[in-house]
């Protein structure tokens, strides 16, 4: 094994590091996906959950912007990522210690969890940013590396789902905190994107960022409009899934199975992303992704009556999410000019967080009023609206550049 690693060049070693880092992050993340189930168990209504998630999304906007500025100031994406992993994991592990039987317990949790999200809300963004930028700069296969992350997420989801009757939902909070130390350790040896070796005595030049170049890009601005409506649907879809499970009689301990299955279905399109990009434009792939996710919600609203049918329609979401992960981040990377790629990603995340605020606030109230199944029909319509907006933004010149 030692001889094998000694034969690898720098690019090969970083490919292994990025694969391990991405895989271990999503493996650990799988153990921490039970916050909604936990809140549901202690009596949170859909409206209360929507309010909490909306506040968390608002904090997420500040979080991504703040840590993005810290990253730019330090000149290190990696250091900030490690800080987020350690801080968020430590705080998230304390969640079960918040009293749940008091009259003001919902208020305590509505204050504490968004505070945790100041750190936790930026973790996945920095994880994806680190991977995308290193893959583009080192010419690594992003789809394959991200697919490894989805596969380990599936494994982690199945493991915690099987252990849940024994360990309980409360213990998932500290379990994910402990497991997040694995990607934190691997991040110590990860490559810093756009790292340049400065000669001794060389002064660091400061460049003014012309953010206006992004806002003058019609393609980028229309993608942000699409992003708003897409995440209005996506945040509602993911936030209230346990309420649909309860309405259709699916045990909450199967939540991890559903998440793991959807993550497993992300892998095929992630692995095929290089070939797909040769034949189709990134725009077309994004449109197909949103349509597939709309089909899942349509099935949830019209046909789901148990775990089997729920898994069937989760197939569409998994395939769609795999397409969206592989296409959207690379689409932003291609649209953004040099020197503004991190900023473009930050604005994208901020828009999705604003959509998350509205999606959770409105979603919780609507679900309490009309029930879970009709609610998912509304979400399906929101997905299709985002597709219509995005398709209508295509100009003829861009349509002719299918293979760009």
Q: Biggest sheet: strands, sense, closure?
A: none
Low-confidence stretches: 195-207, 396-404
Strand content range = under 5%
The shape is: globular
What's the total count of β strands?
Answer: 0
Describe this structure in words.
This protein has 404 residues and is an all-alpha fold. It is 78% helix and 0% strand. It is built from 20 helices and no strands. The protein has helices spanning 2-7, 10-31, 35-41, 46-74, 77-92, 105-120, 123-138, 142-167, 172-179, 181-187, 212-215, 218-239, 241-247, 255-271, 273-279, 282-302, 307-335, 341-370, 372-392, 396-400.
Features:
404 residues; disordered C terminus; single chain; mainly alpha
Quick overview of this protein structure:
This protein has 20 helices and no strands.
Topology:
Elements: H1 2-7, H2 10-31, H3 35-41, H4 46-74, H5 77-92, H6 105-120, H7 123-138, H8 142-167, H9 172-179, H10 181-187, H11 212-215, H12 218-239, H13 241-247, H14 255-271, H15 273-279, H16 282-302, H17 307-335, H18 341-370, H19 372-392, H20 396-400
Helix pairs in contact: 2-7, 2-8, 2-9, 2-10, 4-5, 4-6, 4-18, 5-6, 5-7, 5-9, 5-10, 8-14, 12-18, 12-19, 14-17, 16-17, 16-19, 17-18, 18-19
